[in-house]
Amino acid sequence: MSRRFEMQYEIHPEMLEAQYQHLHHADVLRVLEQARVQFLADLGLPQEELLEKDCFLVLAKSEIQFFREIKADSLRCRVKLLAFQGESGFSVEQEIFKFPKRLAVRASFELVAMSGVTRRRRPLPEELRTLLNGIED
């Protein structure tokens, strides 16, 4: 499997900020989150299975650049695994493209595994680490 995951996403007019007629930056973050969740599900580890393993992934660090406003349109969202961050986390780069190839957003995120029971950082589940290690360049 490739280190890069891609999904299409539709922005509908009712999703836009009424005053500016573009997607609010907080909603852009939600689109990126949905792409990360789908990336893990496509690897074979949906969010529900992580929760069953007493693990949820939280955002530890983010950096985001906006290049173009996003209006009602079809988008492509990419997720690329960058690196492991110690035993409990990993980093990804994400991009949103307006069709056909116009970069609208580039972001990087560090995610860490947390225990739902202790509410503290925990090692990544071995199954997740194995799946992520199996991703090729």
Features:
3 helices; alpha+beta; Thiol Ester Dehydrase, Chain A; 40% strand; five-stranded antiparallel sheet
How many domain modules?
1
Main beta sheet: 5 strands, antiparallel
The rough form would be described as elongated
The percentage helix is 10-25%
Widest β-sheet, arrangement of strands: 1-3-4-5-2
| N- to C-terminal distance | 9 Å
Low-pLDDT residue intervals, each spanning 5 or more residues: none
Number of DSSP helical runs? 3
The counted number of beta strands is 5
* N-to-C order of helices and strands: EHHEEEEH
Q: What proportion of the residues form beta strands (DSSP E)?
A: 35-45%
Corresponding CATH superfamily: Hotdog Thioesterase
Question: Under CATH, the topology is which?
Answer: Thiol Ester Dehydrase, Chain A
Question: Which CATH class is shown?
Answer: Alpha Beta
What's the CATH architecture? Answer: Roll
Description:
With 137 residues, this protein is α+β, with helices and mostly antiparallel strands. The protein contains 3 helices and 5 strands; from the N terminus they run βααββββα. 24% of the residues lie in helices and 40% in strands. The longest helix has 19 residues, at 25-43. The radius of gyration is 16 Å and the shape is elongated. The model has no long low-confidence stretch (mean pLDDT 93).
